[in-house]
Structures are given as structure tokens and as C-alpha cells.
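[scheduler] slot 2 assigned
[scheduler] job type: sequence-to-structure, two independent chains
[scheduler] chain ordering preserved from manifest
[runner] begin chain α
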Amino acid sequence: MKRMQRGMTMLGFLITLSVGILFVYCGMKIVPMYVEYYSVEKALASLANEPGSATSSKEKLREIFFKRLYMSYATKVKPEALKIEARDNGYQLIVDYERRESLIANLDVVGKFRAEQAVVRGAGTP
């Protein structure tokens, strides 16, 4: 009796391996963009919960925000991405930026990110 061989051919294995490597490579480019975005959200949230932040000046808020980003190693967000709008009861912080990473040759991955946080008087106090 003749037995049928089972399994993957060498060509099938190489194609599967190359597709897997492509996905891992794309992930290596995309995941840091989202990690940075979550650092922005975390810095905004902690700034909103800080006592006295709603009565601080815009320059002080900007300085504290970028110090927190720097501590999280999120250095690609530019200062012009942060907009601080005065409201009746505090500030509205808006971070709107675009991040571009080179993928392969002339192909880029572009991520557009936007995060908003209200800094309200009385927030962050027990």
C-alpha cells in the first residue's frame, strides 16, 4: 500500500513564513504609534485630576503636559499639536496630531490621533 504524505511543502512554508514576517514588521511600525497615543491620553487624564490645574495658566498646563509625555518617552508629539481653550469652569485640552512612519520603500503608515480632556475647577480635589 502506498501512503500519502501529509504536511506542508517547502514552498508553502516559505510563503506562510513571509506573510507572518510581514505582519510582524507592520506591527512593529504601528504599535509604537498607539502606545504613544495612549501616553497622550494618560498625560491628559492625570493633568485633569491634578488639584489646581484648572486655575493654572495655559503655559503652565502646556509645560506639565509635555513633561509627562517626556517621562513616557512620547517625544514625537509637537507643541503645536496641543490646543488649550479657555472655558467658563476651566480649560478644554485638545491634542490633534498625525504620525507618519515609513513602512516599505515609498509606502508609509499614517495615523491620525485626537484626544480631548476637560480640566474643570474642583476636579481632582477629594
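[runner] end chain α
[runner] begin chain β
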Amino acid sequence: VLEAGAQFGEDTAWMSEMWPNGTIYAFEPSPESYPSLSQIASQHKNIVIAQLALSNNIGEFPFYLAGGAS
């Protein structure tokens, strides 16, 4: 499962339990929510996380938070 915008990991944990034989690839660029996602991922063998945003462009770009949402 590819989860773009995993936020705090609530849905990530649910998907991990729903598909225990699958792998959840969770992406979350926000420095505010990534630590929670990381903690949840450490409790599940089938979650792979990356502190990155997904785009159709290659490179580094500014990341702006707007009211807690990205």
C-alpha cells in the first residue's frame, strides 16, 4: 500500500493490521507529525516510512505548513 500523506499514522496502523502480509509505504514530510508516524511504524513490521513528499518533479522544493495541514 502506498500512503501519501500519512500524518500521525492512525490510518497507517489500521492498514498494517488490515493487511498483515502486505507492506505499507507511508510518506509524511511534516516535521510536526513525522515523530508520531515513526513511533507507530516501530510497532509494526510491515510499515516502511519516509519523511518525504511525493511529486511528479524531481528535486528539493520548499515545504509550507498551513494551520497544521500540509
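[runner] end chain β
[qc] chain β: Residues 10-18 form the longest helix (9 residues).
[scheduler] slot 2 released
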